[in-house]
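How a chain folds remains the central question behind the approach discussed here. The record that follows shows the chain in one-letter code together with its fold in token form:
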Amino acid sequence: MNRTSLLKGLGIPFFLLVAFFSVASPSSALDLAAVEALWSPPDSATPIRMWGFIADPGSCPGGPVTWNVGPQQTGATGANLTINLRNCLSEPVSIVVPGQNANLTPQVITDGQGRTRVTAFTHEAPVGGTASYTWNNVKAGTFLYQSGSSPAKQVHMGLYGALVVGQYDEAANDVLLLFSEIDPALHATASRHPPGRAVPPELL
């Protein structure tokens, strides 16, 4: 793949198309950071608060960065893939790749009604900390990588990107589209929920 496009909407009749070129090459170890970000709709003067994955700069940024979809990651068919994640957010974060095999270690809590609830599909990078995630013998194809922690909230906040594994002989100029939506009301209230998972059940 040599070009990627992102189609992003606001949940109402507004859509943004962002195109960028990917120059990533196959690698077995990738470094990402989960950070605060801002996205400015072209028809509004009010930026929308986002969370996003960026290439790990080696330390957490001093403030919000300009949001974009997570950098496209490239893997080699049959190889092992490791993503090292730095967490610069105010709550734990993780990474999963639906469709790729991994040994998951779900994280659970007991809610106020005594029920066991899963808060993350696998181990997490703690606030201000790091974690590593490995997929063995990765399969060819195009996949999403995304947060596996409180996914109804964190994925919606912008924690996702594309993983491309393998090459397609007759698809040198194919275009990758990622569809999602932005709900300004959810994004504006995300910071009001403390890191201890005191969030509404529908966001867990």
Notes: Residues 3-203 form a domain with the Immunoglobulin-like fold (CATH 2.60.40.420). Confidence is low (pLDDT under 50) at residues 1-27, 193-204. Helices lie at 151-154, 184-189.
